[in-house]
């Protein structure tokens, strides 16, 4: 694409492959750190669908309580691009590793405090206000995590394996979602009163244990060799975000739209659909178990598509996933509306499989849009912005479109397919980056 400087030097690598000890440690750090961050972030999403409307938004009626709960969910997504810019600024100036440690500690603290937050019945109006505040802190932290985890893995990897290496940051998302859903699902086995009073808090408090494990591995990772090469230049620049927006605007738009395609799948299938299925009579535990299984399916398809994109290119794989999402949009809505666990299972597994197809190449696709000096900031802005627009607001927008459509799914389906079509055009408009040297 225009505006992307091409490097004439060979790509810097830490090894000739991904199997040496140091590279395995880097990939493990990228995966585990991202998994812990997304465990925390998506744990909130699950709780927003099945818990918070009963604990923090009581007295509003089922519809308004669900809307308010999803609204706090969206607050975290709004903060993600801000976190990407904030952490990206320091990651592009001071190094990838340092900001990754700070982002993980920030996320763990916010999640633990949510687990300790008294309900509205005890704390009054301060409870939902504090909940939103902590959710915003979560959003800032996860906004910085993905960009750092992705760039440090990609910039250590050999050129022919960049797509697979970068995807380890993406693999952490379904792994974290799986762990979060299983944790909440196990707690739903408690009597309903116990679950709503204290059981839902256990997964949030468990976050700090996961953070300590992630930090143990992350502290042993070395700085990106590509960043080290440009470190002196990086410290001279004041605002990487200014260069991203003024010199790479087209890349930002393409990166945003490409990501929205898969994040609408996440918002629809793993948040909105959970609420709708349970409201229509589906067993809560069965729905959460299906969601956990679907996260595993997404993890597998993410791995496969990441490997394939190193051979065929980023665009062909992502286009396949978006076309599949367009074809599956209406069936998914009808399956969720059925109110059966089986219908929800088919819907969420199909959606997560398609999301994984796009998700696998997406990290490398974004990284190859930007040069090293602004890669952390540029890629983070696109990824987190797409997450905010595609997943953060999707549940609330979907609920509004169903109401506007008289309770039916036709209007929602039409809007969703239209959004996916725009995303498809953006991906097709991008240049393939698989063979581009990083500079």
From TrEMBL:
Molecular function GO terms recorded: transmembrane transporter activity
Membrane-topology descriptor: Multi-pass membrane protein
Main location: membrane
Limits of the Major facilitator superfamily (MFS) profile domain: 26-433
Keyword annotations from UniProtKB, A to Z: Cell membrane, Membrane, Transmembrane, Transmembrane helix, Transport
Assigned GO CC terms: plasma membrane
A Pfam family per the record: MFS_1
UniProt-annotated location(s): Cell membrane
Domain of life according to the entry: Bacteria
Classification via CDD domains: MFS_ShiA_like
Transmembrane segments: 31-52, 64-87, 99-117, 123-143, 164-186, 198-219, 252-272, 292-309, 316-336, 342-367, 379-403, 409-430
PANTHER family: SHIKIMATE TRANSPORTER
Name listed for the protein in its UniProt record: MFS transporter
